[in-house]
Amino acid sequence: MGQRWWRIGGSVVAVTLAASIAAGLVSCGRSSAVQIGTGDTLVFPRVEARNLLDEDVVLPDALAGAPALVHVAFYQRQQLQINTWLARNEAIEGAIEGLRIVETPTMKRGWALIAGQIDNWMRSGIPTDDGRARTISMFVDTEKFRRALDLPSDEVNYVLLLDEQGRLLHVEEGVYDETKLARIIAAAGRG
Fold first, then answer.
1. CA dist., res. 23 & res. 16, Å (int)
2. Per-residue DSSP letter, 88
3. What does the alpha-carbon distance between residue 123 and residue 132 come to, in Å, rounded to a whole number?
4. pLDDT of residue 41
5. Distance of CA 170 to CAs 35, 150, 153, 178, Å?
6. Between the chain's N and C termini, which has fewer beta carbons within 10 Å?
7. For residue 20, how many other CB atoms are within 10 A of its CB?
8. Positive or negative torsion for Cα 90, 98, 142, 43
9. Does residue 118 contact residue 111 with C-beta atoms inside 8 Å?
10. pLDDT tens-place string over residues 147-182
11. Which of the pair, 4 or 17, is modelled with greater confidence?
């Protein structure tokens, strides 16, 4: 009887913990505060994160010195849309000299409690070191992050073009298409 109660009690604790994580009520070690820039120019917020090679990465500092294309997804279901862009990385990099492309799964801060497990799940689907280095897990206050970049919803994925100093030049959302890429190239001053 005692073991059965423990299992039920453990399930209640697990469900309560999972709900707290999802709501962002539990603070965890691998979360990062979003530091918002000032002025009218939107700047990618400073975020301390890790890539899937388990290396510390500070954004946008790690991208400084070259333009960057940052894929932002808030939910795993958005990965299929991002994949339509990632399949064209080589062509996109060829169109904008020096371009760096990264993918930032952007999760609520509370999920940092199980960051290692989440990263392992993602790592299992990305077989190359290059892909793992480009994938940077961010555990942040997602609403504050979206406000910093004027992103209206977490229900879509975004493709952000940043300049050499992390300033936002252009935003697209959803799946890849030639028109969106042409707008990105034009915003980069290459089209």
1. 11
2. T
3. 7
4. 85
5. 20, 11, 16, 15
6. N
7. 14
8. negative
9. yes
10. 999 999 999 999 999 999 999 999 999 999 999 999
11. 17
